[in-house]
């Protein structure tokens, strides 16, 4: 998203990168299976769901159902895909595909999703819906769909008045898997497996990318890493993907940025904080940021003040690369005026197939419409 027809990286003073699924690529098939299993284990062991509802055979059968850009209607138990005007172009109830007539019974003859205006204004989750917009959420789509179908079955085949209790269980499962405390405590399934076998889940950053970053800095560009991941996990990941001296390749590093809040005007007063030797957030930063040092929190306005001091310029131009529309692409441009570049691994599917699954019953196609 740029204000010009032509994009030239030489036009920018600072080039910023997200970490997960941008600077560092995950081995998605392996990671998806791990995420799926961790969530299922929580639901079965902590919430007493039937183990037969969730199994790896079901995962293999329905894995193509999981994708970014769809929305879970928490009240109706539907997954919907929208066009740019908020019209529902694909719909399932649980895992079951809904035809045009059934979809209209949910959303009216025009099939306009009633919360579309809220979505446009917030670009964030709100009461009544859940956006599946990143790779950490994709594998749980089929789990959520199977939960809906199991709930209907136990309700004599009738739809529930709301599926919010199921959604709450899902959020609890995800919180255990990805909470920052789980990494340090070695709990939740995901982080323990990740630590034991990083090479199974993470790709090393290609030398060509490393050389490119270094060439940008050599040409006088400021290179920044701004990630939502906490310091301990980010350091662990980057040390494996880039090497023990990884901080030397980034002029500025921000962890736990809490995007999109990092780009939100109401967070202008939120200070950057230092990290102590254990990676814990400690004292507030009173001055501008120091190069090659890991900080947390903060905001884009204070970050730009550091850039101006560092470059000696009154105004700086920033471009930011990231994979999340909700956190990395729309907010920096819309709220702060940074240009953005969307990193879409889905485009690799045009040439590379992650798997061969003849049993796939995918309802959604990432590039096509249903009605």
From TrEMBL:
Domain of life: Eukaryota
Gene Ontology MF terms in the entry: 5'-nucleotidase activity; metal ion binding
Keywords (A to Z) from UniProt: Acetylation, Hydrolase, Magnesium, Metal-binding
Signal peptide bounds: none
UniProt-listed InterPro entries: HAD-like_sf, HAD-SF_hydro_IG_5-nucl, HAD_sf
Pfam families xref list: 5_nucleotid
Family statement drawn from the similarity comment of this UniProt entry: Belongs to the 5'(3')-deoxyribonucleotidase family.
The protein's name: 5'-nucleotidase domain-containing protein 1
Species, as recorded: Clytia hemisphaerica
């Amino acid at each position: 998203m740029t204000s010009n027809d032509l994009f030239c990286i030489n036009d920018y003073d600072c080039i910023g990168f997200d970490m997960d699924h941008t600077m560092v690529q995950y081995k998605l098939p392996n990671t998806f299976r791990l995420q799926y299993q961790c969530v299922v284990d929580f639901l079965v062991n902590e919430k007493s769901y039937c183990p037969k509802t969730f199994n790896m055979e079901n995962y293999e059968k329905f894995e193509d159902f999981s994708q970014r850009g769809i929305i879970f209607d928490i009240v109706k138990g539907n997954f919907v895909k929208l066009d740019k005007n908020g019209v529902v172009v694909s719909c399932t109830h649980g895992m079951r595909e809904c035809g045009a007539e059934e979809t209209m019974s949910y959303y009216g003859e025009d099939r306009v999703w009633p919360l579309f205006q809220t979505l446009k204004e917030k670009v964030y989750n709100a009461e009544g819906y859940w956006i599946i917009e990143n790779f950490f959420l994709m594998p749980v789509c089929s789990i959520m769909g199977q939960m809906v179908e199991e709930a209907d079955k136990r309700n004599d085949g009738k739809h529930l008045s709301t599926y919010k209790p199921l959604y709450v269980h899902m959020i609890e499962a995800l919180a255990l898997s990805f909470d920052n405390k789980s990494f340090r405590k070695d709990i939740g399934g995901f982080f323990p497996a990740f630590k034991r076998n990083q090479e199974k889940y993470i790709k090393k950053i290609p030398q060509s990318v490393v050389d490119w970053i270094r060439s940008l800095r050599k040409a006088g560009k400021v290179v920044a890493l701004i990630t939502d991941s906490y310091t301990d996990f980010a350091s662990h990941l980057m040390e494996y993907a880039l090497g023990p001296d990884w901080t030397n390749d980034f002029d500025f590093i921000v962890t736990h940025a809490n995007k999109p809040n990092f780009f939100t005007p109401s967070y202008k007063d939120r200070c950057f904080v230092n990290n102590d030797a254990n990676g814990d957030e400690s004292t507030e930063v009173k001055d501008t940021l120091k190069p090659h040092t890991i900080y947390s929190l903060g905001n884009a306005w204070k970050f730009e003040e550091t850039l101006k001091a560092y470059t000696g310029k009154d105004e700086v131009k920033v471009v930011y690369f990231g994979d999340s529309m909700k956190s990395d692409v729309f907010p920096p441009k819309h709220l702060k005026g940074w240009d953005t570049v969307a990193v879409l691994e889905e485009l690799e599917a045009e040439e590379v197939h992650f798997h061969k699954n003849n049993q796939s019953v995918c309802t959604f196609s990432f590039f096509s419409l249903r009605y």
